[in-house]
Amino acid sequence: MTPNEPAGSAGAASVDDAVGAFADAAGTPTPAGDSRTPILRARRLVKTFGRVVGLDGVSLELYPGEVLAIIGDNGAGKSTLIKCLTGAEVPDEGEIWLEGQPVHFKRPQDARAAGIETVYQNLAVSPALDVAANLFLGREERKKGLLGSVFRVVDQKGMRQRARQELAALGISTLQDVTVPVENLSGGQRQAVAVARAAAFGSKVVVLDEPTAALGVRESNQVLELVKNLRDKGIPVILISHNMPHVFEVADRIHIQRLGKRAATITPQSHSMTDAVAIMTGARRG
Amino acid sequence: MSQQTTEPPTSALDLAEEFLDRTTPLSRIRNTLHRYPALSPAIVLVVSVVVFGLLNERFLNPANLSLITQQVAVVGTLAIAQTLVILTAGIDLSVGAVMVLSSMVIAQSSVQAGLPAVIALALGLAVGLAAGALNGFLVTRLNLPPFIVTLGTLNIFVALTLLYSSGATVRGAEMPELLTWTGSTFDILGVNFTVGVVLMLLLYVAIAFILAKTAWGRHVYAVGDDRESARLAGIRVNRVLMSVYLAAGAILAVGAWIQIGRTNAASPNAGIDLNLDSITAVVIGGTSLFGGRGTVWGTLLGALIVGVFRNGLSLAGLDVLWQTFAVGVLIIVAVSVDQWIRKVRA
């Protein structure tokens, strides 16, 4: 606790877990009904790259139905933290639990199979394929009967149908035609395709890496709406972003990384953007 | 960290977007060509057939049309394999050499080793698959660029062919009938077709179906389109690439069989330059060398365009060098058009 924060208030920032203390450190703000257990929890993750310490014992909790933003300066360990959670890197030390079960991801496919879907900064979409084909890329559905089982023909019609349903369910109205090649879409629409793919297949956690970084104002707003829609559907979201207004608009809680550690976890209600930046840069302790 | 406080006025943004969305007749043409990559080669083929037909009445003669298809059969088959590789953003310089090596193995194992024709063909297929496996292994495991890999294997396969065959041609008359069967002809509505031409067309139908209708086909496009995206989408990129080179090898073995029928011989010196002709057919057919875009039907049209140009110009009495000149111009025009088409709201 910092001296300038009223201890015990709902908005109090938590210092990193004391050694041995298990996750729900006193004062960590949780969404309403905070007796719930985290859907995703990481404890004391350490990751070094040679002599460079990427993560220095970071813990993180993601609760059902919340948007958790991760902010931090360049080199603070945001990306490394996310890579460890999504299987792109294997942490040297520490533990990760998904729905209370310990998990050990060796590659991104492991995390995806477990229900953690990631939308990467560079947008993993195939420009020449259409919207529906991109949504089902890598998990195509085959036709029923001999055509599907012997000739392995994909069920194009069915997939397009389902793609429309999934997009409608996510409240994505900007993609009317699922047969358009993705390269004909705007940046925001492409982002929507990528997010829809992450959210569409019964995923438990969606991780968005800088989803608004390359977008204009209007497109950013569309993506932020989409993030809120995901939360309203009950899908917890981890959002990595540099953009404070965006973070403060959609996040329920904000995890601040600094120098490989969790500096604080705050809420948009308890702290201002200036506070967050101060904690991020070390001008103020969390 | 960016403390964004000023936002550009939204109205200006809307105006800009409307401006971008504005369609001119030219951009509409471009969008259409973009959506149907086989359309531009189809137009070129129809126009060139009409022009050459008007220039010389012998051009549209059934016998001449039949000749064109026969001349196209081998290159057309190799170009299927080439299309698959180019769709993955690769290139295969060894297609001609693999085809020739396979044809020599088929001929020699039958004539000199006295193996049954079916076994000889199976050995030819095995050679094609092994060559494809080698290319695929070097591209996926050693992570070498396909251009370099196949430039190397091109030389290796040429050398192996000459070592194995001692540079000698095997004449069709010495071979069992099955091996030269691809050169036998039959009649449809007065036009002569060879079995080889039909075999090529069947391959086109099969590969077009697989590319358009199966998950594997989509993965081939996705890998060529954006390899990293495909990987992140959970596609096993190396497995797809390996299967593409294996499939190409198998298709090349069929090409070897068609070549034996077409030339009624197996010659170690025939067709090594076909690698460039196959790339020409693919490129003129509208498949992008950058991968992820194109169809085998475009390639068939591309192969036919080259055949029609060569045949039509030679009927017009032009020097064979002018045919080569024309093909060169075609390639450059085709790639320029492809670049222009790719600029659609990119």
Automatic annotation (TrEMBL), chain A:
<dbReference type="InterPro" id="IPR050107">
    <property type="entry name" value="ABC_carbohydrate_import_ATPase"/>
</dbReference>
<keyword id="KW-0067">ATP-binding</keyword>
<dbReference type="GO" id="GO:0005524">
    <property type="term" value="F:ATP binding"/>
</dbReference>
<protein>
    <submittedName>
        <fullName>Sugar ABC transporter ATP-binding protein</fullName>
    </submittedName>
</protein>
<dbReference type="InterPro" id="IPR003593">
    <property type="entry name" value="AAA+_ATPase"/>
</dbReference>
<keyword id="KW-0547">Nucleotide-binding</keyword>
<dbReference type="InterPro" id="IPR003439">
    <property type="entry name" value="ABC_transporter-like_ATP-bd"/>
</dbReference>
<dbReference type="InterPro" id="IPR017871">
    <property type="entry name" value="ABC_transporter-like_CS"/>
</dbReference>
<dbReference type="Pfam" id="PF00005">
    <property type="entry name" value="ABC_tran"/>
</dbReference>
<feature type="domain" description="ABC transporter">
    <location>
        <begin position="40"/>
        <end position="284"/>
    </location>
</feature>
<dbReference type="InterPro" id="IPR027417">
    <property type="entry name" value="P-loop_NTPase"/>
</dbReference>
<dbReference type="GO" id="GO:0016887">
    <property type="term" value="F:ATP hydrolysis activity"/>
</dbReference>
From TrEMBL, chain B:
<feature type="transmembrane region" description="Helical">
    <location>
        <begin position="188"/>
        <end position="212"/>
    </location>
</feature>
<feature type="transmembrane region" description="Helical">
    <location>
        <begin position="320"/>
        <end position="341"/>
    </location>
</feature>
<feature type="transmembrane region" description="Helical">
    <location>
        <begin position="240"/>
        <end position="260"/>
    </location>
</feature>
<keyword id="KW-0472">Membrane</keyword>
<keyword id="KW-1003">Cell membrane</keyword>
<feature type="transmembrane region" description="Helical">
    <location>
        <begin position="147"/>
        <end position="168"/>
    </location>
</feature>
<protein>
    <submittedName>
        <fullName>ABC transporter permease</fullName>
    </submittedName>
</protein>
<dbReference type="InterPro" id="IPR001851">
    <property type="entry name" value="ABC_transp_permease"/>
</dbReference>
<feature type="transmembrane region" description="Helical">
    <location>
        <begin position="93"/>
        <end position="111"/>
    </location>
</feature>
<keyword id="KW-0812">Transmembrane</keyword>
<feature type="transmembrane region" description="Helical">
    <location>
        <begin position="36"/>
        <end position="55"/>
    </location>
</feature>
<feature type="transmembrane region" description="Helical">
    <location>
        <begin position="117"/>
        <end position="140"/>
    </location>
</feature>
<dbReference type="GO" id="GO:0022857">
    <property type="term" value="F:transmembrane transporter activity"/>
</dbReference>
<dbReference type="Pfam" id="PF02653">
    <property type="entry name" value="BPD_transp_2"/>
</dbReference>
<keyword id="KW-1133">Transmembrane helix</keyword>
<dbReference type="GO" id="GO:0005886">
    <property type="term" value="C:plasma membrane"/>
</dbReference>
